Amino acid sequence: MATQQSLVKRSGKLGNMVFYQREKKDVKRHTSKPYELSEESKKSSTDFGRASTSAAYIRKAFAPLIEYYGYRGIVNRLNARVNALFKTIPAALKGKKSLLHANLSQLVGFEFNPYTSLDKLLAKFPQYQIGEDGTLQIAMEKEKSSLWFKTNPKFQKILLQLMIFNFDLEGDDYEVFKMEDLVIDISMPIFTGARVAIPTTQQGKKGLLVALGASYRDRGMTGDRRYFACQINFAVQLNNGKVFSPASETKVPQKNKEEKIEGISWVLGEGD
């Protein structure tokens, strides 16, 4: 900062100089140069923005489960998980990273309620299998209840809730499937088993995520965070119904249209 000595007093901006009064003195200073990000910083910023957008995309798909099971900063925790996923994408794709390039299986195990993991309620998880036509087969075989569910002296029943998010990795289309709630009497010695087949659309490159929630029940759902859990339980990339390894460049999928199928029912028992 310098004091103006000229007989002609100025105020305002002239070129890269600013003239003004301070404590009854006429002063001038140079304007600061705008800070410009380096190309590498711009690329990192772009990737970070896409990771945050992708996390929001997943949250919106599983909103009904997040509303009940989501706990302790789930927005920031999922953002961090997806951002970490983006960091595993090869550096050659910096500035152009998307979920197409990431290994979605690394999202498996993300807990909606960090206080209680899903394995605190379930002794094991359903089996997931992609059929030749892209149909998602979900099966829980007939077995002793104790081999499926963790017992709790306060409760006789457990509620299972399951949602599937099937989305285009190179476009905007997606599907959200919500299974009908399955209430199981865990006091019974034998669980009869359950199965379902989800006819997902599998043309092109898709990402498929399954979120599974469980909650002990008496007369209704408990609000105690010790007794409910939900996690991303299955995640895979598919190319025309076949599992593939991330390899090519794409844009992050954005919402365009919504296709929801509600109330798909489990078939109880082992089946044929």
Question: What does the model show?
Answer:
The protein is α+β, with helices and mostly antiparallel strands. It has one domain. The chain has helices spanning 39-61, 63-69, 74-87, 145-148; strands at residues 2-3, 12-14, 17-22, 25-30, 127-130, 136-140, 143-144, 157-168, 174-179, 182-185, 190-191, 194-198, 205-217, 228-239, 242-243, 259-264, 267-268. The strands form 4 sheets. Strands 8, 9, 10, 13, 14, 15 and 16 form a 7-stranded mixed β-sheet that branches. A hairpin with a 2-residue loop joins strand 14 and strand 15 (242-243).
Element layout with pairings:
Elements lengths: L1 E2 L8 E3 L2 E6 L2 E6 L8 H23 L1 H7 L4 H14 L39 E4 L5 E5 L2 E2 H4 L8 E12 L5 E6 L2 E4 L4 E2 L2 E5 L6 E13 L10 E12 L2 E2 L15 E6 L2 E2 L4
Parallel strand pairs: 9-16
Antiparallel strand pairs: 1-4, 2-3, 3-4, 5-6, 6-12, 7-11, 8-9, 8-10, 8-13, 12-17, 13-14, 14-15
